[in-house]
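ok so I'm stuck.
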Amino acid sequence: MRTHIVRSLTTLVLTAICQTAVADEFPSRPVKIVVPYAAGGPSDTGARLVHENMSRELGKPVIIENRGGGGGLNGTESFLAGELDGHTMLLGGIAPLTIIPWTRKVSYVTERDFVPIGTVWRSAQTLVVRSSLGVKTMAEFVAYAKANSDKVTIGSRDRHRLASWLGAVAARRRHQAHPCAVPLHQRKHAAGAVGGQIDGLFGDASTVAAQVNAGKAIALSVAAPQRSPALPDTPTIAEAGYPGVEAEGWHGFVASSKTPPDHVKRLRDALRAAQSDPIYQDRLKKQGATAGEFGPDALAALIRTDSAKWGAIITSANIKVD
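replied:
not stuck anymore, here's the structure
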């Protein structure tokens, strides 16, 4: 009788241990990455460069789901309405996390509702001009602007490419004493500068590099602390003589702040291991981008500093985005 009781208790204990282990296993099913942009752009590319490596590290498939619209806002808000246990991550971008909340009412507070996992993509905004303009440096462009201040135009990709748009605004406001503070127009792609409709364009380095390398546009400077791997011969805007203007587009994985901490740690460890792969780093470089500093602290710092920087510009310039 006693032996039977001991065996029964042992069975119950072992069953409880096994059930706890299964319950605590993470991930227990495929992990989804919500990309709040259409397929094919820099943000989508950044997620796809690393998702296979993350799948290997997590031991489960990692699936990308594109939910475009609203400059990243639609997918970001829908993410928070879904499962929040870590089996779904968000590719958070500079626009929905740090810029859009300053321009309209949103359903979240970034630093309250999201927890950073790590940065996956950083690319500098770049000032390019049409080749036919006849200038090859920032100094030459400023001189040209002084002589033609009534007709020189700088563009950005459009208001929903907010890093590009605000990079142009920042350059104009920071150097108000110079006639490079010229009328600002929106163009949906680099063809605006290449085709001659406008004189210059602020755009993502990885996007404008093809036009520059083809000789259809001239890159004058990149608005980042370091030169871009997409345009290694192009000086930073500080090197070109105009310090104080930095505008990088970036994306990073975030989870809901309601995600269990051990699940967040598992995702962070998997991302760090995935990014250490030399093949990933080489692919990222070929895209003209960098990951910057790895880890959640670096992404948290990006969110914090960019929100403060762009918020100040948006507020002082009274910028509204439809």
